[in-house]
Design brief:
This protein is α/β, with parallel strands linked by helices. It contains five helices and eleven strands; from the N terminus they run βαββαβαββαβββββα. A six-stranded parallel β-sheet has the order 3-2-1-4-5-6, with helices on both faces. The protein has a five-stranded antiparallel β-sheet with strand order 7-8-11-9-10. β7 and β8 form a beta hairpin. The chain starts with a strand and ends in a 5-residue tail after the last helix. About 30% of the residues are buried.
């Protein structure tokens, strides 16, 4: 897969290294000349260009890339780059970094963003997930807000222990996708029993999140 990354700072370089390790082709777009360091990522394609300049993006051949990641430290630049990638170059998938959580509401389809990644919100969710037992925690928003990935860790003395998955009647547009148990990843089947301290991962619609919380409470999943 060909991936273009706007912004070759610490975040952009880390993403590039990970993608290259996974066998993808990566181009880094960076407007500050002193940030361009091909020796740091020798397998990447380095381009000195402003990610918001249409002509420079044309010269870089952005239309040939399947994925664009707007990873600069400037939310305005990330929004403009996302919009150009989607509307002018027809890039199939646009991922944008949100630096200031107050701007998160802007990062949607109207600005060409398919997936918005808010580092502060993600870190807060991971902290909540690590310390919360019996509480539903939203980990990630998917498909431009059409669905959420949420997690609940069952308390050790949960009343669901020993009961099969089928006994948990989930709301509409909600699916239990994974059970994490002692380092194992379990794809749940209807006869699989729950155990205390299971981590349950659900995909649900935004409207179904509160109903899911109520459903889990009614089944005694909360502490």
């Amino acid at each position: 897969m060909k991936v273009a990354i706007a912004g070759a700072g610490a975040v952009g370089r880390s993403i590039a290294r990970e993608l290259l390790r996974n066998g993808h082709q990566v181009m880094l777009l960076e407007r500050q000349l002193d940030h361009i360091d091909p020796a740091a990522i020798p397998d990447g394609i380095w381009v000195h260009a402003d990610a918001c300049e249409l002509a420079l993006l044309e010269d870089a051949g952005l239309e040939t890339y399947e994925v664009v990641i707007a990873a600069t430290g400037d939310d305005k630049a990330n929004l403009v780059h996302s919009l150009l990638a989607k509307t002018e170059f027809g890039v199939r998938r646009v991922v944008a970094r949100v630096n200031d959580p107050r701007n998160e509401w802007l990062f949607d389809g109207s600005w060409g963003v398919d997936v918005a990644v808010s580092t502060p919100r993600l870190l807060a969710s991971l902290v909540e997930e690590a310390v919360s037992v019996g509480d539903l925690v939203r980990l990630m928003t998917l498909r431009q807000g059409q669905a959420n990935l949420v997690e609940l860790t069952l308390p050790p003395d949960t009343s669901l222990a020993g009961k099969p998955v089928r006994t948990l009647k989930l709301p509409r547009d909600t699916a239990l996708v994974t059970i994490l148990r002692g380092g194992r990843v379990i794809v749940p089947q209807s006869d699989d029993p729950f155990e205390g301290e299971d981590e349950l991962l659900f995909v649900t619609s935004p409207e179904g999140e509160d109903e899911l919380r109520a459903t889990l409470a009614s089944h005694g999943a909360n502490a």
